[in-house]
Specification:
Number of helices: 13
Structural class: alpha/beta
Number of domains: 2
CATH architecture of the largest domain: 3-Layer(aba) Sandwich
Bound molecules: pyridoxal-5'-phosphate
CATH class of the largest domain: Alpha Beta
Helix content: 25-40%
GO molecular function: histidinol-phosphate transaminase activity; pyridoxal phosphate binding
Largest sheet: 7 strands, mixed
Radius of gyration: 21 Å
CATH superfamily of the largest domain: Type I PLP-dependent aspartate aminotransferase-like (Major domain)
Order of helices and strands: HEHHEHEHEHEHEEEHHHHEEHEEH
Distance between the termini: 54 Å
Protein name: Histidinol-phosphate aminotransferase
EC number: 2.6.1.9
Keywords: Amino-acid biosynthesis, Aminotransferase, Histidine biosynthesis, Pyridoxal phosphate, Transferase
Strand content: 5-15%
Subunit structure: Homodimer.
Strand order of the largest sheet: 2-8-7-6-5-3-4
Shape: globular
Number of strands: 12
């Protein structure tokens, strides 16, 4: 064990295109206030815990058998939850929307193909793309602005979206609405125009859709007549079930048939299926926290403005805040006060998850204190 692991790794017969890559790694630190991975801060309510335990207990006896490979009941429940006249055969599910995305890329991207996304965006889109052997193209957002700390620079516009799709002719295009880490939902005109501009698959990642401000339409409304459009969702955020690992998508049934070519058989355990179904039967209770979280999100936006910072308008359970002279120093200062938020590597910006009222107050107090040490530049 004298040799370092990285020396051994360098010698291993690893795929050349994976050499020098870094894995996804949001810090998982034990601090009092964790607002760095957009989890739902509320524990699962007792009545939902009881329902999940009942459902899992019933399955436990049959763990000698493989699960329903088609997770039929779960797909029906997910279709019902989504509404929009969706049918169960339009729904797919996997262990987190990350796996849904991986399966989509295995079927529609892979070696020799290109995938376009518009950065800054969810880093897993590019990481999974590379993992499946495809080439990631870093698309640009914003029309160029004088102020580097202006959050509007992250808006995605129709013309620039279409131009980049026409330039790169990707096999798969990602849109993310509300976008992570910027927080703002996408104008559906961008989705429509992107679909028209490409012959490839268009994935709209709507992980945070439940938190959108009133009047924000979902790309689910665009599914009829668009057989290359996929909308992905997750139970990790609004449903407070990040630990259960359940993501899903809605698309034309033929898209989901394509996924069946690459998925591992029985990829969704019977325990996962049972837990997710029990949670969906209590979706009203689980989603009760969404309004409370949105209120805290809006409080973060207002308070950050009052502190002279520049928060981006948010349709998600987090806020991207700009205007920091030294975001890395501020991140450390917050951590020393027991508050963990996210540095997405955007100069001048930090992202914070909206938690409980108590967590939000702790964060805002720590932020105000930290800014006393390092004021916002005039
Ligand atoms: C958090 C997040 C997800 C969730 O991934 P899961 O695998 O479902 O937990 C997906 N997309 C985006 C943009 C996210 O921020």
């Amino acid at each position: 064990m004298n040799e370092s692991r990285s020396d051994v790794l360098a010698r291993l017969p690893l795929r050349e295109d994976l050499r020098g890559r870094t894995p996804y790694g949001a810090p998982q630190l034990e601090v009092p206030v964790r607002l760095n991975t957009n989890e739902n801060s509320y524990d699962v309510p007792g009545e939902v815990v009881a329902a999940i335990l009942d459902a899992v207990r019933q399955q436990a006896r049959q763990l000698n058998r493989y699960p329903d490979r088609e997770f039929t009941g779960l797909r029906e429940d997910l279709a019902n939850y989504l509404g929009h006249d969706l049918e169960a055969d339009q729904i797919w599910a996997a262990n987190g929307s990350n796996e849904v995305i991986q399966q989509l890329l295995q079927a529609f991207a892979g070696h020799g193909r290109t995938v376009l996304g518009f950065t800054p965006t969810y880093s897993m889109h590019s990481i999974i793309t590379v993992g499946t052997g495809a080439t990631w193209v870093d698309g640009k957002r914003g029309l160029g602005t004088e102020n580097a700390d202006d959050p509007n620079q992250f808006d995605l516009h129709v013309e620039q979206t279409v131009a980049q799709i026409e330039q790169h002719r990707p096999d798969v295009t990602f849109l993310c609405s509300p976008n992570n880490p910027t927080g703002t939902a996408l104008d559906l005109e961008v989705v429509k125009a992107a679909y028209e501009a490409t012959d490839g698959l268009l994935i709209v990642d709507e992980a945070y859709a439940e938190f959108a401000r009133p009047g924000t339409p979902s790309a689910l409304t665009l599914l009829p007549g668009r057989e290359r459009l996929v909308v992905s969702r997750t139970m990790s955020k609004a449903f407070a079930l990040a630990g259960a690992r359940l993501g899903y998508s809605a698309a034309h049934p033929a898209v989901q048939d394509a996924i069946r070519l690459v998925r591992l058989p029985y990829h969704l355990s019977s325990l996962t299926q049972a837990a997710a179904q029990a949670a969906l039967w209590h979706s009203d209770v689980l989603l009760d926290t969404v309004e409370a979280i949105k209120a805290e999100r809006d409080r973060i936006v207002t308070s950050a403005q009052e502190l002279g910072l520049k928060p981006a308008p948010s349709d998600a359970n987090f806020v991207l805040i700009g205007g920091f002279a030294d975001e890395k120093a501020l991140w450390r200062s917050l951590l020393s006060r027991g508050v963990l938020i996210r540095d997405n590597g955007l100069p001048g910006f930090l992202r914070v998850t909206a938690g409980t009222p108590g967590e939000t107050t702790t964060f805002l107090d720590a932020l105000a204190d930290s800014l006393l040490d390092a004021p916002v530049p005039a």
